[in-house]
Amino acid sequence: MPRDEELEKIVLGEILVAGSNAFAEIEGELTTKSFYSDAHATIFEAIAKLSYERKAINISELAMILNRENKLEYVGGSPFLSHLITSVSSTVYLANHVKALHDIEVKRKVYILAEKMIALAADKSVEQDEVLEMADKGITELQTNSAGQVFDIDESLGRYYDWAVANAEHKNKVIPTGLMGLDSILDGGFRAPDLVVMGGRPSMGKTAFATAFAEYFVFQGYHTLFFSLEMTDIQLIGRMVAKNGVNSSHVRKGCMTQEEWNIQDENMSRLMGLRLHIACSEDYKQLSAIKAEAHRFKRKGECDVIIIDYLQYIRTKLKNVQRYVEVGYITSELKSLAKELNVPILLLAQVGRNAEGTDVEPPQMSDLRESGNIEQDADIILFPHRPWVYNNEAVDKTGRSWKDRGFIYVAKNREGMRNVKTYFMNDPQFKEFYDDEQANEQLSHE
């Protein structure tokens, strides 16, 4: 087992000699798990508490806090604390020693992971995909330092304060959707680690919205990983390219005008080199394949947001279970994936109930097909609705036609407003969306 207990003593002694300012410089690089010795970990935890309580970091304060918690004798008593200091000749190498200790910690975690993987690989009852998925997940956790984190209240308070400060300084990633009305409801847009479900009936525009969001994301510089389980990459990119004067029907029929060719070339040039990655093979209909690919892109630093189109195509290795149980497992795993990778995930889902007549109400959460645990696992649930699809003469409460218009109903929003609507307009080919400012001003509070 990789460890160096003498180095641990040196680091603790150097921290005690250097004091509070030095500890603030290296605090984020070490945790109690950086120390193999439980006694050393206990001392480091006490030092961290002194820092949080804004007390001086020295041997007398350390002895008091350890004594208060009945841990002083456990770590070796005051003589051991004194020995930590007297053995330090200089603190000039503190940063180097901290890095070395962190490296040993990582190697120790790799060692433990390897032991687990050997045992799993030797188990004949475990399938290959499960072995690979656990290995991939374990490596990702090592690289993101997200495995097994348990925080006491003081640590969580400190982390919360840092998070609030980062928000105030606009350091935390909030990914705007491009629709100002929706961003206003969602306090700026999508954020990690939210699982956002967009459900809708056929022809309501789920994929069109996902494509529009993806295009907006990449133009803002975000690496976007798009799992297109229904359409090919050519079809998906075609939705982005065939607009602004390009008739998609002419593209399919091979009868574009020269002007359309020119516009298409401009649209393609505009998209060239952007950070969009499209996964569209049949393999990605397996949940394990989605998770493995997402982990791979995250390790490369090329995954800021994930889009999956759509839920009902995803399958798992679960056997002899009803579909609603499998769907519940999928959404639970995707929520866990969002937390592991610290990214928002937009998951499209089909609404199951058949809509009939000309006055069709927008769907509710209970309408989600094979809903499983969707309502529980999702942080945000959105329903796009276009009344004109069902009734070409449909008008809103002000008498304005619903042609080329619609709204998004925010049915759930764990951290903000819910049961509210934001209104949008779309081009006739349903390739572009933008805010319906008039409707948002008149109807948003209905």
Structural account:
The mean pLDDT is 85. By secondary structure, this protein is α/β, with parallel strands linked by helices. The protein has a 9-stranded mixed sheet with strand order 5-4-6-7-3-8-9-10-11, sandwiched between helices. It has a two-stranded antiparallel sheet with strand order 1-2. It contains 17 helices and 11 strands. A hairpin with a 6-residue loop joins strand 9 and strand 10. It has 2 domains: 93 residues, DNAb Helicase, Chain A, CATH 1.10.860; 270 residues, Rossmann fold (3-Layer(aba) Sandwich). Helix 1 packs across helix 5, helix 1 runs antiparallel to helix 6 and helix 3 packs across helix 4.
